[in-house]
Amino acid sequence: MSLSTPISSLFEHDYRALVLGASGAIGQAFVAALQQDPRCIQVERLSRAQGFDLQDTAALAAQASALAANGPYHFIVDATGALTIDGVGPEKSLAALRPDILAKAFEINAIGPIMVLRHFAPLLAAGPSMYAKLSARVGSISDNKKGGWYGYRAAKAALNMLLQTAAIELQRKQPELRVVALQPGTVRSDLSRPFAAAVPHLLEPGESVQGMLSALQGLSARQGAHFVDYQGQEIPW
User: What is the pTM of this model?
Assistant: First the structure.
């Protein structure tokens, strides 16, 4: 599916969207796809070039405050994440574990994203709205049949719990809010490049994003978060 393929709208009304991590392969594809939706009247973006930094909580708060005037946003997607940490790829054994790399994996893939949600959740519109965050199938404890990838798995599992907990809290005031952990598939990007040779079908960013947007359209409001893949299939926590 190419970026030129029109998508049906995420909402039945005009809406504003915000893409966080917009300079990455998936972030750019989200921006491009949303710009094609005639219902999407505004697509704001934040990237590293604008100082968006998961490890700088003060900057996150300032950026959220600055963007509030352009909202509220009906759809916010956080397309950030890191698989290789300081040049170190996923650990394949207990012997490969390093506390500094584990800590940074959690900082980038769990702590940073939940601080993003803390500061950007107030920008969500009342009524039907969505907050989506890229997660990973390897973050599913139930689905772990191969082991390995300790830090990435554990950080994504922690992220999923944080999203679930935040969803329950936020929905007390915004019952029509859908919080979603999204599995994008293995996408052709800087993140996947070291492992791409072993993947039978590597998705193009636009293909992944079109699938995720279609999956989001089919999600109903419910208590807690959703965890789905780019094909719209529910993933066990």
Answer: 0.92
